Every structure is written in structure tokens, then in C-alpha cells.
# Entry
Amino acid sequence: MSMARAVTLRDVAEAAGVSVATASKALNGRDDVGAETRRRVEEAAARLSFTPNALARNLASGQTGTVGLLASDLDGRFSIPILMGAEDAFGAERMSVLLCDAREDVIRERHHLSTLLARRVDGLIVVGSRTDPRPSIGRDLPVPVVYAYAPSADPQDVSIVPDNVGAGIMVVEHLLSLGRRRIAHIRGDVTYAAAHDRIAGITSTLGAAGLDLLPPHSFGSWSEAWGRAAADAILAESPDVDAIICASDQIARGALDTLRDRGVGVPDQVAVVSFDNWEILALGSRPQLTSVDMDFEALGRLAAQRVFESIAGTTTPGVESRPCRLVIRGSSVKGA
Amino acid sequence: MSMARAVTLRDVAEAAGVSVATASKALNGRDDVGAETRRRVEEAAARLSFTPNALARNLASGQTGTVGLLASDLDGRFSIPILMGAEDAFGAERMSVLLCDAREDVIRERHHLSTLLARRVDGLIVVGSRTDPRPSIGRDLPVPVVYAYAPSADPQDVSIVPDNVGAGIMVVEHLLSLGRRRIAHIRGDVTYAAAHDRIAGITSTLGAAGLDLLPPHSFGSWSEAWGRAAADAILAESPDVDAIICASDQIARGALDTLRDRGVGVPDQVAVVSFDNWEILALGSRPQLTSVDMDFEALGRLAAQRVFESIAGTTTPGVESRPCRLVIRGSSVKGA
DNA sequence: CTGTTAGCGCGTTCAT
DNA sequence: ATGAACGCGCTAACAG
# Structure
């Protein structure tokens, strides 16, 4: 509560009996300063508990040590892990992340964009809530921009997305390795690219093994209710099914409910696998869910790295896919 | 990608053929500037798409227009809605929020604290992941600090917490209004203050109605697995139960599973209510969950308001409780 | 090695 | 109504 004036470098310099410039060098660990002098300055700084004014530092150096994270997912399900990954990669001491949530609103996004630019962020990470291409926020902005999760529609931009096709491949390979052959798929929302990418990986891998997805083949939503209904339909139409791939953990939760209601053993009779590895869902079910983790933190780390490269001027534009990670649990492997 | 030098006020002034000072006044809407001159300056600024450098502006003004949000919940479940509420209250155009996640790590928290102070944030909101008092981050910091969700252990600090006692009262009143009398409670983690506060509200309200909680009375964890086990125990020990209050949505999901397995109708035979209103869980179940929402956004708005007041110097320290909100759905009222 | 001089970009006096 | 000059706190270039 005691709102005392902040101590400045000048105060430190005076206390140490040196010039401001020398104090600056001493504290910034530059080598052209005497050992004894440095000690005195550091001692003074510590005694006064000096905190350098980042604003002034940045204004002088031309860099803000800040990157903007322009997010669009209302619940932070993607942006928080991506933020944490980015913090890790940047090294929290050097870079701070300014998080703005546009709440899926274009106006708000433009607005946040301009305040971030006004704050002279050194870079920008744009996080979307789905992997469908989204409009670019602009071509020649004064700072490097990296799109994470949702790629930019402009191929000149730098984008990083999870490899959903690869994710589809992984789950099928897992099921095949378990000896499953009669595999059905509960699709997600038809309007999502992720739904189609996962199907592409699934069907191509099945095809290579001479197999096909069991019917039915309809799309739905990402909800548990859809998972319940779709699982019902599968049991009716393809009663010999031995594995169900669910397009999301929510769907899988619904499917598990139906299987349980019908007395179908999981994983003995039917193995269940899904995507997202949303732990609150995946760990609570009976049995726990085998699921593909998109590794948002890694996405965030990579995005941060690309921002750095862009600052240095060495980035190739385009959309880059990051591999996902299969987390095996009891819904596909007994006791896992 | 074209990393052109940012345009400065000076560029605008030259383009408009005026001095920097005049340009500044014109753009900041001060009245001592000619109408025609102002027009020319504004036109030039627009043409060059001038964005004032917030750093420089802030360095001069001594205010950064930035508040720090020091969070500790790894998944952003609390901090994101609180952030959004704060953004709303501040008005996104005037204030930006710098989000730092300490990941429940004291060292990291100290570290983030110092970088936030170095950035000269105008205020600080500290968000914890549980309502138990947490150590104060320090008494005489150069900026106002408001604790949200997790109160500070120092009564001299300003804290805002959800009213968990009131939440307990609300659910009981709801159940009583539905005619339920044989009420059991599945407790959460015994180490959490929230678990005890909710019980306090529950038992006092029941007591006022001449009722008692049905056994068993043991604590557990916040998990679905505990919810399943505890519901089993309740049915065994108190088979005439007509309502179960679950300490969290996760617990409620587990309880619903058990009730379904046992063929107990919800809400006909047993009404189920819970706390958190975590929509991913509350909306996916059969039936959907009646749950108490802690209204984090309102918490964030209030925190922002308190920060403002503290800047102005008019805040009374202490812990303030915010009322929660009961969201009624099908698990307690048929068809709701 | 150290201190002096110049800015960084803007807002704000004060003359004019 | 306009502009020159100064300062915010710090870093960077140059002298000494």
C-alpha cells in the first residue's frame, strides 16, 4: 500500500558514486567495467531493491520483450497450454506474453491487434479454436506473426497445426496391432477440418490393411449425446464391431455410456479410442480413455521458436504439421 | 513480412507540415488546435496508418495501462474467465492484461512477480486455484494487489472469493423447495476449504429445517471415481435417500453413473445437484446437471474494479465474498 | 575502464 | 493557435 516512488538507475548510480551509464553496464553484466565498481553498483542496487523500468529499457533498445497471444477460444483450452509452451520456449525471464481473447469476434480481434501493435510487441501468435484455415490478420504487419492450431488462409503466413491425419493413422495402427479388424468410427462435426483430416488418416491406413470402416458413416457433433446415439446405431448396424474410433473424448464418453448400458465389455469386446486427451474427460471414465494428445505445449514452444526465427528473418512460410501423441489407457488395452 | 520501421508521430507531423507538439495535441483531441490543422494531421496519421508507441506514451505518463494477472491454475479454468471479466471491467482499450502462470510453483511466482513489477504494471490480480488462504505476495509493493478466488492470508490485503457457504445454502433451499427431505452429501477433498464451506452452508440450512444429512459422511477426492464409490455407499447405507448433493460436477458425474447402474431414476427417485457448473461435464450427462456456478467472470470484473479503487486509494482491505448462481437443469427438475 | 553526450517516441510545459 | 524545449528512465556511441 505504501506507493513510494520507484527507485531508478540514477538513484543506484548516485548511491554507488558512479555515473548512470556505468551503473547500467555493471548491472547488465557487460565486461567493460571494473570488478570492484561492479560490486559496489550491485550492492547499491540490491540495497535499494532496484527494479529496472522495462518500459524505458525497451523504448531505448527498441525491443519490448513482449509477444502478443491473440486467442479465440473462449475457455482457454488451447491457448493456455500454448501460452505455457511459448513461455517455456521464450524463457520467461526474457519474454512476457500478453494474452488477449477475441472471443471469436472479428471486431474484437482487430481491436486487440491494434493495441498489441501499439504496445510494440516483438511478435504475435494467433491461436484459433479449430484447424480450419482462418483469414490472415494481415500481410505486412510490422511484427512477425505465427498462427498456431488454426492456420492462416494466406500461404505466405507461417502456421503450425497438429497433424490430424497422422493422428488418424496412429489410432488405426494401434487398433490393428491389438488385432482389431471390425472398426467403426463416430465422426465429429462435419464442418470441422479436423473431423475430415482424422477420417483421411483412418481410412487410408485401414485401406492399406485391406479393411474398411464399418457402417454407419454419418457425421454429428462433438457432444456426448451424439456419442451415445451413434454408438447405438453402430451396435444395431454392425453388431460384430470390435473397435470404435471416436472423433473426440466427449463422443467417446457418450459411446462408453451406451456400451455399458448394452452390456458390451470394453476393451474385451470393443476397444474404444478417441482424440483430444482432454484429461478431465479421459481420466474420469470407466475404463479410462485411450486418446490422442495434440500436445499444445509443444505447439506453443514451436510457435515461439518460429517467432524468434521470423525476428531473425529466417523462416519459410507455409503450414507445418506437428505430430500428435497417442496415450494408451484402459479403453483399448486391458489394465493399461 | 515486410518489417518496415514503425511510423512515429514525427513522421505524421512532417507529412502534415506541423510540429510534433501540434500533431500530438491534434491527435489527442485537445482543444487548443486549429480545426483545419487538426484535419490535416488526422488525415496524415490515417494515411500513414500511424500507431502511437504505447511504450513512449507510458514512459512519459508514468502509467502503463497494464495489469498483471498472476495465475496458479495450470489449466486456466479459473484464470481465463477471470481474465475475461477483468478485461470487460477495465475496458479492453484502456488496459491490457499480462497473464503469467506460476504453475503452482513459488519460485516461478516470485519470478513472474518481479518481471511484472519491472514492466510497471498499474495493478496486480493474483488468482489461486483453491479458496484456501494463500501467502501474501508482499505487503508494500509499489502497485495495488487484489487476490481473486484464493484469498490472501494477510487481512491487510484485498481479496475476493466466491461465497461457498452461500452456495451450500442455495442448493439445500432448492432441494427443500422440491420437497426433498432425505438428503445425502458426497464430500470433496478434506484438505480444501471449499469442501468445508459448502458443508457449513448445507448443514446449517438443513438444521434450520430440522433435518440432518444422511450417512455416510466421509470425505474423498474431486474425482468421478470417488463419486461412483460414494454413491454406492449412500445407496447401501441410506436406501431411502431422495437427493444427493455432490461437492463437484466430477463427483456428480460419478454419482449419476452409479445411480444409473443401479436403476435409480434421476430426478424422480433421487435429485442430484453439484457445484462448479463446469459445462463440459454438466451439459454432457444424462440428465444434465443442476449445478452452482461460481461466476468467475463476475469475480474478475469485481477484482478489476477493486484494482481501480486501490489505484485511487479508496479500498477497504479484507476478504469479500461474491454470491454464486444456481443453474437448474434436469438432474433436479424433470425436463429443466 | 569510466563518464559525457545522444537519443528512443511521446506528452507537456512555456514562450511566441 | 503553434512550436521549441525539456523530461520520462534507460541504453548505446563515443571520448577521455
